[in-house]
Structure formats: C-alpha cells, structure tokens
Amino acid sequence: MLPARSSMFFMKSMTVVHPFTDPVLLTWCREKTPKPALGMFNWISAFRRLSDEDALNQQSLDSYLFIRFFKMITLICLVGTCITWVTLLPINYMGGGGKTELSSLTFSNVKDPQKYYWHAGAAWLFLGKFYFVLAHELNAF
Known about the structure:
By secondary structure, this protein is mostly helical. The chain has a domain at about 50-140. About 65% of the residues lie in helices and about 0% in strands. It is built from six helices and no strands.
C-alpha cells in the first residue's frame, strides 16, 4: 500500500515542481515546442508565427516575457530606422556642411539651423511611437 501512495505523490509533485520543458511532462501533456527552423534567417518567420498563447503554454514565464520584450524592441527599432533613414539621412547628407564619407550623414553636416527642427520632429515622432508601444504592452499584459 505504501509504494502505491508514494508513486501517486510523486506524480502529483512532478506536475507542480517540474517545468513545462521536462521530457516526462511533455509526453504526459502531449505539448511539445515546435522544432526550430533550419537556416540562418529562417528563424524570423518562425518567430512571427509564434503566438503568445503557445509560448505561455509550452514554455516558462521568463521565455514568454522575453519573447514579448523582443517583439516590442523589434517594433521600436524598425520604426526608429524608418524615421531616421527616410527623413534625417537625406537632410543630413544635403546639409551643406562640407563633410565627406560617413561624416556627411551625421548631425554635424547640417549648416542651416532651421533644419534642426526636422531632427526635433523626428525625435518627438519616435518618442511618441515608443510611448504608444509601451502603453499597448502595459495594457495587454
């Protein structure tokens, strides 16, 4: 009688103590994390297809929060890149400061003080998008 009770206790404690990635629990739950994509850049499509619910159900809370953080940072960096490459790089390049090579793309190449407003506007736009993404994540979580 004692070994049967101890095995029941062991199975109950396994569901409480062991993480979701334990092989015994994965076969018991029949939930497995999908295989990673092969190739250097194939992880991007797999990352975009991964839903938050799958990550939360199949992995730990730390990995779920990291995936949410990574998606948020990716979106913020993509918006910042679009803002700077579309608006600020042409303004800096045509700024008339006489710089050459990579220095022609910097803030120091702008001579006209009126063009500094483009930089301030881009900073406000980027900061607004950052606050919007942050507020969206805080409301979603």
